[in-house]
Amino acid sequence: MAEAERIIGTPDTPDTGRDGTEGDDARAGGAPGAGAREDGAHGAGAPVAASGTGGTAAETERPRGKRRIAVLFTVAAFAYALDLISKMIVVAELEHHEPVEIIGDWLRFEAIRNAGAAFGFGEAFTVIFTVIAAVVIVVIIRLARKLYSLPWAIALGLLLGGALGNLTDRIFRSPGVFEGAVVDFIAPKGFAVFNLADSAIVCGGILIVLLSFRGLDPDGTVHKD
Q: Rounded to whole angstroms, how far apart are CA atoms 175 and 114?
């Protein structure tokens, strides 16, 4: 009982009996009466209520966090699968063939191998880009533990799926492990050739910038500068 009173505190207003004197006796340290028994009842019941409230809050927070993590990995798996399947089709049907025009000269599919970063930049730094992609993946996975924001889950899922897609090419395609050339095939007129993984990375990055401008953090809190 003493431990319960220490945790929840002693009520500021003592209980009052029929004649209004029992509260004074309890304040003066007199013999315990009905007020003492009621205090004991409250003391025994309060921790149970507090524990129940805390349990409810914890149960509310846990599914909320799990749902956001599930969204992240679902989006990542979808983006990765689309990129992987599209590259398999391109290698099988378009490589060593004439480009396929989709919208006249404005958009066509043309299979090329890119040893650089997204959109063909930095071909001399293939290994460095491979390491950067691996680091990004690790950081996103670690950040997922504190993820409570749905928009952030979608943005990070796009980044993760795109990074995994291009990293798969870096590891498994020629000329060698960590030096593989990425398969690109989307060729807009007057623009660099890219793939679906590049698109997912760019879309995820734009979404993160927008969320940052709005002050929304990955844990779901909103801050104002």
A: 11
